[in-house]
């Protein structure tokens, strides 16, 4: 599968109101809300759900995005191999980002789980995630994502990937640099886009004073920076997800 969008599907044993449809979404039993047992490249797997691997199960995901998926084990992916993939905003009970997975040159950040918010029982190298997973050449600094894929100019992920694993093109169809960036995007075009659309998403409703609210910026286009302002004050810079307590 190449250059696909696999959105809002469910393996049948998890959600009663959804069924697996289509040749790529008919996953075995409760495995892989988006895909199972296949190779996916330059694609988006978003808002799918399953018991094992909300986005992907037992497959290989390359130069792609896993976002907004949910599962009991591995909100983004479980028992899978991820290369140059950005995994964010996924949710699970165990391993919000990945569970029992192998990940290389990937961003696994801002996911949530009761145990292992970003990763659990996984082998990571040349990845950006927290807490530090051990392994080789991993970093824990915030990746500074501007949207679901693009890196800010000050992102610590730029030029920090393993060049031997950079294959094909990035999610935007651009070639990888000689020292590739971690994640699905190689930020070669720093001029950005003149046509941007931005919205704010939250699951923290209703909002009550004194309690943390998590909000997420959804940006269409290619931004060069992202600034959050609350009451005219700068609350965060170059972070797609923000948590704030309103007084």
What is the overall shape? Answer: globular
The main sheet comes to: 6 strands, parallel
Alpha-beta classification = mainly beta
Ends: how far apart?
48 Å
Strand composition percent: 35-45%
Commentary on this structure:
The protein has 247 residues and is mostly beta strands. The protein has two domains: 5-165; 197-245, no CATH class. 0% of the residues lie in helices and 35% in strands. The protein has strands spanning 5-7, 35-36, 39-41, 44-46, 49-52, 56-57, 60-62, 65-67, 70-73, 77-78, 81-83, 86-88, 91-94, 98-99, 102-104, 107-109, 112-115, 119-120, 123-125, 128-129, 197-202, 212-220, 227-230, 233-237, 241-245. The strands form six sheets. A six-stranded parallel sheet has the order 1-4-8-12-16-20, with no helix packed on it. Mean pLDDT is 85; it is low at 12-27.
Concise structural overview:
By secondary structure, the chain is an all-beta fold. The protein has strands spanning about 5, 35, 40, 45, 50, 55, 60, 65, 70-75, 75-80, 80-85, 85-90, 90-95, 100, 100-105, 105-110, 110-115, 120, 125, 130, 195-200, 210-220, 225-230, 235, 240-245.
Strand and helix layout:
Elements: E1 5-7, E2 35-36, E3 39-41, E4 44-46, E5 49-52, E6 56-57, E7 60-62, E8 65-67, E9 70-73, E10 77-78, E11 81-83, E12 86-88, E13 91-94, E14 98-99, E15 102-104, E16 107-109, E17 112-115, E18 119-120, E19 123-125, E20 128-129, E21 197-202, E22 212-220, E23 227-230, E24 233-237, E25 241-245
Parallel strand pairs: 1-4, 2-6, 3-7, 4-8, 5-9, 6-10, 7-11, 8-12, 9-13, 10-14, 11-15, 12-16, 13-17, 14-18, 15-19, 16-20
Antiparallel strand pairs: 21-22, 22-25, 23-24
């Amino acid at each position: 599968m190449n250059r696909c969008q696999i959105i809002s599907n469910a393996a049948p044993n998890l959600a009663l109101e959804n069924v697996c449809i289509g040749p790529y979404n008919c996953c075995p039993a409760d495995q892989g809300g988006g895909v199972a047992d296949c190779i996916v490249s330059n694609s988006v797997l978003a808002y799918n759900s399953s018991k094992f691997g909300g986005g992907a199960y037992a497959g290989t995901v390359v130069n792609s995005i896993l976002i907004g998926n949910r599962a009991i084990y591995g909100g983004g992916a479980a028992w899978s191999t991820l290369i140059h993939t950005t995994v964010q905003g996924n949710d699970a009970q165990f391993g919000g980002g990945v569970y029992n997975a192998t990940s290389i040159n990937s961003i696994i950040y801002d996911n949530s789980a009761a145990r292992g918010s970003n990763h659990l029982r996984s082998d990571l190298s040349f990845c950006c995630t927290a807490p530090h997973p051990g392994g080789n050449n991993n970093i824990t600094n915030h990746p500074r994502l501007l949207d679901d894929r693009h890196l800010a100019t000050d992102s610590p992920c730029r030029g920090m990937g393993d060049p031997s694993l950079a294959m094909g093109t990035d999610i935007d169809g651009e070639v990888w640099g000689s020292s590739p960036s971690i994640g699905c995007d190689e930020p070669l075009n720093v001029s950005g886009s003149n046509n941007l659309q931005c919205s704010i998403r939250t699951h923290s409703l209703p909002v009550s004073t004194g309690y943390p609210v998590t909000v997420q910026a959804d940006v269409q286009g290619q931004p060069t920076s992202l600034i959050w302002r609350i009451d005219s004050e700068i609350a965060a810079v170059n972070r797609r997800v923000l948590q704030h307590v309103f007084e």
